[in-house]
Design a protein that fits this description.
about 170 residues; mainly alpha; disordered N terminus
Length: about 170
């Protein structure tokens, strides 16, 4: 009886298949059950995992703090821009105020012993001046305070932007 090649290869293939199936069946429990790591290695992995989680949590907290700082810098910048716009819009009023104060400082009102105007006119002028000077001084102090606040806010924004740039 002569075996042809197809029969031989079919029989050999079947035998190999049976052999592979037997080997896989015997290895099944070994493959299905993962190998247990030594306890020391498992503890090291758990510790490393915890360190990574802590580092990620710290990174998130730092990112939130940076975002808060950037938001504060933006708000301060907008506030400074708004105040500067307000100062720019009131330039004419500021010029009048400073001009009046400069005029009064160069030529302060005096009480002449003799005056061509009637006494009542002098009294009215003096009362008007006494009522006006405190208001002018208050306006000048308010203007100076606003300029100082704008300068401080601008400085805060620029220094905050420098810090934020370093943190990013």
């Amino acid at each position: 009886m002569r075996l042809n090649e197809a029969t031989l290869s079919g029989a050999a293939g079947a035998a190999i298949a049976v052999l592979v199936a037997a080997v896989l069946a015997s290895l099944g429990p070994v493959i299905a059950a993962p190998a247990k790591a030594p306890p020391a290695r498992s503890d090291k992995l758990d510790a490393a995992r915890e360190e990574c989680i802590d580092a990620a949590r710290d990174a998130q907290q730092h990112e939130q703090a940076i975002a808060e700082l950037e938001r504060t810098i933006i708000l301060l910048g907008r506030d400074a821009e708004g105040r500067q716009r307000g100062l720019d819009e009131s330039r004419a009023e500021q010029a009048r105020l400073l001009g009046t104060l400069a005029h009064l400082s160069r030529d302060p009102p005096e009480r002449p012993a003799y005056a061509p105007a009637a006494a009542i006119e002098r009294m009215r002028g003096e009362m008007l001046l006494q009522g006006t000077l405190p208001g002018l001084r208050a306006q000048a102090r308010a203007l100076a305070g606003e300029i100082e606040r704008i300068a401080a806010t601008t400085l805060s924004v620029t220094s905050g932007a420098d810090i934020s740039g370093c943190l990013s």
